Structure formats: structure tokens, C-alpha cells
Amino acid sequence: MAKTGREVDTQSVAAFTVLKRAVELDSESRYQQALVCYQEGIDLLMQVLRGTKDDTKKSNLRKQITGYMDRAEIVKKYLDQEKEDGKYHEQIKIEENATGFSYESLFQKYLNETVTEVWIQDPYIRQIHQLYNFLRFCEMLIKKPCKVKTIHLLTSLDEGSGKQQQSSGLQEIKESLQNHGVLLEIEYSSSVHDREIRFNNGWMIKIGRGLDYFKKPQSRFSLGYCDFDLRPCHETTVDIFHNKYTKKI
């Protein structure tokens, strides 16, 4: 069914909003995020083109699309070369009380159908809320487009009163993952301090606070209790690297 002029105008505004963001990210050298926005914006602009009848407008749209596609291709080639050379590095700063940083929002762009194995190094998967964070992260990993078969967790052992809680919690997560055809290998180390996550497609993410960067919700019935994109965060820094040859931690 043909789209109305109002629908086309709405899509046009959406397309140029995304593309404006792409240009901003590009100018800030945040190329991976810029590329995602370029691709999304170009796709929206293509939909606008298909719904446009005026020949002059069509011609202008084609020129704009070509310009954005050319820039997106340059960015993509640059990123591919950086990844090939093992030089890729991007940094995201999460401000105090910032929202919009659920695991899906933060990690999704680095996950695809080639991800079959994941390594997680985090010394603090101990307390109940930390165990739930890890569970939530695992839930994300078993969803499409990922085809994760093995998850490796390196953490520290709680030697205090929470030892049984930690052990039983991780065992339950392990058994639940087995029901989805995923193997969870758990290793404890008293000397682990760094926090990093590696995917076997080459991406490595280091978060200053590990998976535990969300603040406690104000109440059980406050926004952000369930949807972590609405959950305020502690201040932290996220460093993203790419290495063609991802190895076990």
C-alpha cells in the first residue's frame, strides 16, 4: 500500500535525525557507533525514496543517499583496517546517574551470528544482585543473532558468609544454560582483579566496574527495576578493543 505524504515526512525526519547523529559521532571519532547510525539512517532514507513521487525530490534524495553511503563505506574500510591491525579502540564514558546503558544497548552492536564463545573476567560475581547481573548478561547472549555454545567465567571466590550463596547461584545458572545447549565453565582465582569481556569474533570490552555498574532501584515498583535502560548507572568508563585473534583469558 502506498504511503501518505505525512508518513513519508515522518520517515524523512526520522532518517535525518539518525544521520545527523551519525555525522556527530563521526566528527567525534566514534566510528563504530557512527557506522551503525549511517546504516540505519540510509535504510530509512531509502524507504523515504521509495515513497516519494516527485522527480526533483527523488533526485535530491538519491544524491544525499549516495553521499552518506560513500562516507559510510570510508568509515567501514577504516574500521576494518583498524581491526585487522589490532589497533581499534573506542571509549564510552557513562556519567553518574546516566540511563540507556542496559547490557543490550551497550553490547548488542558487537554481537552477531559468529559469536559462539565468550570469556568473562570479573572478580565480583558474588552478591545476589551481582549474580542477577551475570544471569541477565547470559540471557542476552543466548538470544539471536548469537549462537553462543560456551561461556567461560573467571571470578573470585567469596570466602565469607556468601560462599554458599555464590556457589549455588552460579550452579543454578549453569544448569539453566545447559537447558539451552550452552556450557558454562566456572573458574575461581584469588588474584583476579581486571574486568573484561571477550567475544570470539574479536571484540573485547573492558568496563571499569565490570557488570556491576547499575545503581540500586529506588523501590520494587520504580521505573528501571525491570527495564535496565531506565536504570541509573554509577559513573564508569567502557573501553572497546578489537583483536582479530581473540584468545582465552
UniProtKB/TrEMBL annotation:
<dbReference type="InterPro" id="IPR007330">
    <property type="entry name" value="MIT_dom"/>
</dbReference>
<dbReference type="GO" id="GO:0030496">
    <property type="term" value="C:midbody"/>
</dbReference>
<feature type="domain" description="MIT">
    <location>
        <begin position="8"/>
        <end position="86"/>
    </location>
</feature>
<dbReference type="GO" id="GO:0035091">
    <property type="term" value="F:phosphatidylinositol binding"/>
</dbReference>
<dbReference type="InterPro" id="IPR032341">
    <property type="entry name" value="MITD1_C"/>
</dbReference>
<dbReference type="GO" id="GO:0061952">
    <property type="term" value="P:midbody abscission"/>
</dbReference>
<dbReference type="GO" id="GO:0019904">
    <property type="term" value="F:protein domain specific binding"/>
</dbReference>
<protein>
    <recommendedName>
        <fullName>MIT domain-containing protein 1</fullName>
    </recommendedName>
</protein>
<dbReference type="InterPro" id="IPR036181">
    <property type="entry name" value="MIT_dom_sf"/>
</dbReference>
<keyword id="KW-0131">Cell cycle</keyword>
<dbReference type="Pfam" id="PF04212">
    <property type="entry name" value="MIT"/>
</dbReference>
<keyword id="KW-0967">Endosome</keyword>
<dbReference type="InterPro" id="IPR038113">
    <property type="entry name" value="MITD1_C_sf"/>
</dbReference>
<comment type="subunit">
    <text>Homodimer. Interacts (via MIT domain) with CHMP1A, CHMP1B, CHMP2A and IST1.</text>
</comment>
<dbReference type="InterPro" id="IPR045331">
    <property type="entry name" value="MITD1_N"/>
</dbReference>
<dbReference type="GO" id="GO:0031902">
    <property type="term" value="C:late endosome membrane"/>
</dbReference>
<dbReference type="InterPro" id="IPR052817">
    <property type="entry name" value="MIT_domain_contain_protein1"/>
</dbReference>
<keyword id="KW-0813">Transport</keyword>
<dbReference type="Pfam" id="PF16565">
    <property type="entry name" value="MIT_C"/>
</dbReference>
<dbReference type="GO" id="GO:0042802">
    <property type="term" value="F:identical protein binding"/>
</dbReference>
<keyword id="KW-0132">Cell division</keyword>
<keyword id="KW-0472">Membrane</keyword>
